[in-house]
Amino acid sequence: MTDGPWLVVGLGNPGAQYAGNRHNVGQMVLDELARRTGVAFGSRASGLLSRRPQAAVAEARLGVLPGGAPGPRVVLAKPTTYMNVSGGPVAALARYYDVPAERVVLVHDELDIPFADVRLKRGGGEGGHNGLRDTTKALGTKDYVRVRVGIGRPPGRQDPADFVLKDFAKQELGDLPWLLDHAADAVEAVVVDGLETAQQRFHTKP
Fold this sequence. Notes:
Elements (H helix, E strand, L loop, with lengths): L5 E5 L14 H13 L4 E2 L11 E7 L11 E7 L7 H10 L7 E7 L7 E5 L7 H10 L5 E6 L9 H5 L5 H4 L2 H18 L1 H8 L4
Parallel strand pairs: 1-4, 1-5, 5-7
Antiparallel strand pairs: 2-3, 3-4, 6-7
EC number: 3.1.1.29
Protein name: Peptidyl-tRNA hydrolase
GO biological process, one term: protein quality control for misfolded or incompletely synthesized proteins
């Protein structure tokens, strides 16, 4: 495995009013990764992204390699732009840290996966997810890794666009810490063990 870092990005919308939304579960997972690695997010400013900071960033080692050595270097990032323009910060960070698309990992909410399930893939379509669509456009490729955190479909006839911008329901909140930990484990498995091994672990029902 190359010595270069991985770029792990949690998608979401900025601001306290969105922090608990289903659409922000990717950023919640990044907060869990920062907590378990003991790092704090800071801003990257003009020299990297633009005249204003467009991402909160932390650098860490994630996981443990066979033999007990510290795991790979990772750049953890939470764009401070809105979801539908996530691609600019992702591409700028990838250029700055010299991270190729195959070592970019996006963590995001997924309507087409049941709540509390996690699925992993590289490439493929965006499924109507504006954050993925903008990232694909900015990177010029679909071949980045996606950690897809299941939030399930909206009940009844509720508009999916409204559903993702609501906080998790009371009955989901009890399982949310487990889901965030599970998704963080999936990110760690991708960067330490590789995508195929991680897929075998997280796509297999116990």
